[in-house]
Amino acid sequence: MTADARVRDWVDGWVLSRGAAPPSAEPWGFTVHVGLESHVSRHVLGAVNDGVREGDVREAARSVRATGAQLKVFADPERVLPWLGPGWEPYDLGDVLMTAELTGAEPPAPPAGYRVRTWTRDGVTRVLVTDAEGTFAARGQTATTGASTVVDMIETSEDHRRRGLGRVVMGTLQAAARAGGARRGVLAGTPAGQFLYRSLGWRTVAPLTNARRRPATAA
């Protein structure tokens, strides 16, 4: 199958961001070997929304047997979950795939008492926000492949929320990605982050159904 370009951008950027193995093409999408006990591999359907076919989901679910494997399908969970079969459990329902055009806007300055640090290694740019004592406040990273960048690992400490730090991180990452040649961004947004992303001009492409392979139970 020909994968949706936004899915391919997300897969390629996520692999770079997390240091995972290069994606392998499958008839239904992509397999990525991650190498963690709780996340040994992820298997991503290449289509979105109405382009996701029941037969492809069932084939992917049947072909993946490893405990710790994850399945990512960009379609409504109400459609997808009945197609998975035994051995799969959903998690993190409410996530979505989002995209945005990157502008040349200057990132906002941090609030008084906060410091922003930015560095790039091996194609991944990281932003760290700390308070005046150097304590962690917020972070994020982006990985650029060609004209696309994946925004990843956005986090704000509970002790430092509602101070605009998420906007600082996102703005700094987007400016760095555009300076590095990216013109569009893609991310997987959690329910907690979607309000921020939409306020910054990001648009929802599709719901994201997450499922993981349960350990086999003894007979």
TrEMBL record:
InterPro entries linked: Acyl_CoA_acyltransferase, GNAT_dom
Cited Gene3D superfamilies: 3.40.630.30
Keywords, ordered alphabetically: Transferase
UniProt xrefs under Pfam families: Acetyltransf_1 (PF00583)
Residues in N-acetyltransferase domain copies: 86-219
GO molecular function, one term: acyltransferase activity, transferring groups other than amino-acyl groups
SUPFAM superfamilies: Acyl-CoA N-acyltransferases (Nat)
Name listed for the protein in its UniProt record: GNAT family N-acetyltransferase
Organism: Streptomyces xanthii
